[in-house]
Specification:
mainly alpha; 4 helices; globular
Length: 102
């Protein structure tokens, strides 16, 4: 279950279109250092990018999750979950569980 502050990293791309893994690793190191309840990346390559970035961040001196799980928001429902959670928290949780791809 997602709990706590959520982290929404921005994927850094080089001018040629490739992901800047060193920049991403530093960005993830800093974001993971605060102990987020979840990380959300908006990209079709999010699983690979997060796996690469988390692996690189794990090599730092910062504490990072041992076995982080990824959930992919393919239908972009997180804003709806956030709005719904204000009035109907159980429904918001159920929507996130049902729609996020693991």
């Amino acid at each position: 279950m997602l709990d706590g502050v959520l982290f929404f990293p921005v994927t850094p791309f080089a001018s040629g279109g490739e992901v800047e893994l060193g920049v991403l690793a530093e960005h993830l190191r800093r974001g993971l250092a605060s102990g987020p309840g979840g990380i959300f990346a908006a990209s079709e390559t999010a699983p690979r990018i997060l796996d690469d970035g988390i692996a690189a961040a794990a090599e730092s001196e910062h504490l990072v999750p041992l076995r982080p799980k990824t959930a992919i928001d393919r239908r972009y429902i997180m804003s709806a979950v956030g709005l719904l959670s204000r009035e109907h928290r159980p429904a918001a949780i159920e929507l996130a569980r049902r729609e996020l791809m693991r």
